[in-house]
Protein: C2H2-type domain-containing protein
Organism: Suillus luteus UH-Slu-Lm8-n1
Amino acid sequence: VVTYLCRWTHSGQECGMHVMGDRIRLTRHIQRWHSAHVAHGQRQVPCLWGGCEKVMKRENVVRHIIVTHLKVKWCCSVCRIRLSRDDASVRHFERVKSCRHGVATVERGPEAQEV
């Protein structure tokens, strides 16, 4: 199983729990353990991963963490292009005729750990 250390920081302390690097599990982790730090009712919230503090729409926080902090990439099995977001890989397969029958493989970020 591939995990990443959660670097969500509150009061100077990193979470440190192991989290999966996919959108669903990371969202669950943030909601369960850090929802108090992502103020409900606010449209714009800060990313608190490793002291980032970049402000964005609440619904973009997890995607931001995966792309910016975990550095997960999606790679086309046909042309080997590396894409930074899963939605970009979907668009790639739709738009590039020669890659339509390809699949996206996930490249782990540099902080990925096998547990």
